[in-house]
Amino acid sequence: MDSDADNYEPKAKIDCHCCTYEAKGLGWYNQVFYNTMKSRSVTALNYYVNSELAGQTNYISYYSSSAPTLATNNSDYSFYRKETWNVLFANLGSDKMKKMQVRVTDQNGTWLMVDSVIFKANRVVTFELR
Known about the structure:
Layout: E1 21-29, H1 31-39, E2 45-49, E3 52-57, H2 78-81, E4 86-93, E5 97-106, E6 111-120, E7 124-129
Parallel strand pairs: 1-7
Antiparallel strand pairs: 1-4, 2-3, 2-5, 5-6
């Protein structure tokens, strides 16, 4: 009976303790990362969370000097799916918050970044690729 859960049922009368949670991650990069990827002919990014493919993009087309600002409720991430940032999805299981490994590879599977990210249920967390 938790509104942050993926399987939330507002009509439920009994808490079954079976809530499951999902979080979203938003990878972004600065001009240095962008230029490095262009010089290496990187054309796609693959995002893995704890070794599971969690998102992909087939373009490297935008960079920023700072993390994108998210909406207060973090629920509308559709703006960031435009040809700017890369939204990935993390399955948290029964945990509302979990530290998970994020690995980013290029189109050939070459590792570009590995980092630990703390994901929170029903929220979007930003992380910088570097």
